[in-house]
């Protein structure tokens, strides 16, 4: 059976499952549409949260980010998981007790201010829309690579599918499809990883294989990897090279950004009880960890496999004990067909610069070590001959690099789509809830009937899908950089205002509004200073290099400082103005204790 | 809020538990994983050192245990103060 047929079968089956669930789990009321009637068990919600959270970036890009940087990018692993501790401890149980449907609704009620609620909506929309663009582009890329349709056809197919289950089912439909999508994506991620760990280290578990020895010897895998990459002039894999301060701040920015992402927070509104919200965050992290503890193994092992493909000597002995891979092998050998496949996509590229018929892969941007310098002189190297290796290739090409069977490749394709689609649906739900519940019901048309609101929610969902698809078809050039923007805004606006709303009775309306504005504006200004105004290249006021950053803080890490500014301004302004009314203090006291959450069920 | 005094005591106990969890959370990730890595680099784990293990695997495992411990501890606290659901 051809690879194309296999891909078609696996993707087709997974889509049929999602559509079946969508029809089975239609939403009939606003409570079902926004919060799945608060009847989702904590384990199920944990699984759905894991799929909701793990996007195309987690599935496709993260292992590659770790593969080519090593230890320094552990920040992503810790940052994107540590946020769940903050969610469980600081936000989820209290917001569940509050018992409403959207994040801006809490901000508006707690700070008795429509202005605060609308600022919350604006933040939510910027965060969720920038995030959804990335998911839609991911859907398009995966389709075009595996089903050989054009990028735009792929996108429209994906959009039609999301339309089916998100518009029909709302939170209820999305929850159960996300559970199915989690199963697909975790199988897709772990199967190739297990095969590769077995091949390289003899361990079934990639998690232990990473710290194990290479098959048939006593050499530790990581020690060998360090040696191979440093031989070729790259920075050693396990070493610490970036600034410690920026690593700490970047990890913290990812953590509080994660905890402040509205589409993740609303998932905790679906469980029946406050105690379920606490444990559900734990279950979410268990399911996330199944991928996040495999990712560093995938990164390290695929980096090793790629390097050993380029320098066959590295596999068994010294890196330079055999010549580099020949141009002839890359262009003709059946086991290197994957290189030709990925060259077509532009994600991998080679060039025989010195014309010796060999492709030498090494780091030509650093001072070469002794062995490398000798090789450069001896083979008359004119520069790195594998100049293009895209990060994303590490997960997508992984099964092919390791010569795994065709059905594994087909599963990876279905898994990539599941990761992107499940996150897109969660984001679209957050967007439509903010529009129909906070803007329409909360502001423009408070008298709207429940049926009318449900219709408004569906219409705004459909419009969001259309907008997301169009943006996905023509992604703005800055799409990649906007991730920093989404996390920066979530960290500097939504996380602090929610936390103060729960943990302080003194923060009042003025404090919340000025705090949020100060947090957002300072973060935006800092990002725009280095990335260009509204990401238009060439308009940046300072060059985006570590030497220019204020105290060495990168724009992606600035969300932490924005959050501190938010806290500080809110504290000062609140203390300079009147105390919040008594009923607000009562509200805060009531969300702090679990008893009485059942009442919210009937709301 | 019939009983403000006991709910204040409940809240103080909760804050104390949160501080304990946050301290462990910070210690394993920012501490062992990044800042104190050079201090514990003498302890070798599978081709690298303990700090590398915490940064790539250990901290995630500790996070999971922390959340479940917090959920369990808070359920007990809820019952002690009679504020459970």
TrEMBL record, chain A:
Its main location: membrane. The keyword Nuclease does not apply. Keywords: Cell membrane, Ion transport, Membrane, Sodium, Sodium transport, Symport, Transmembrane, Transmembrane helix, Transport. Pfam families: SSF. The keyword Cell membrane applies. GO terms for biological process: carboxylic acid transport; sodium ion transport. InterPro entries: Na/Glc_symporter_sf (IPR038377), Na/solute_symporter (IPR001734), Na/solute_symporter_CS (IPR018212), Na/solute_symporter_VC_2705 (IPR019899), Sodium:Solute_Symporter (IPR050277). The chain crosses the membrane at residues 6-25, 46-71, 77-95, 116-134, 154-171, 183-205, 247-269, 281-301, 407-435, 455-473, 479-499, 511-529, 549-573. Belongs to the sodium:solute symporter (SSF) (TC 2.A.21) family. This is Cation acetate symporter.
Automatic annotation (TrEMBL), chain B:
The keyword Transcription does not apply. The chain crosses the membrane at residues 17-40, 52-72. Residues 8-84 form the Sodium symporter small subunit domain. Keywords: Membrane, Transmembrane, Transmembrane helix. It holds the Pfam family DUF4212. The keyword Transmembrane applies. InterPro entries: Na_symporter_ssu. This is DUF4212 domain-containing protein. It comes from Paracoccus aurantiacus.
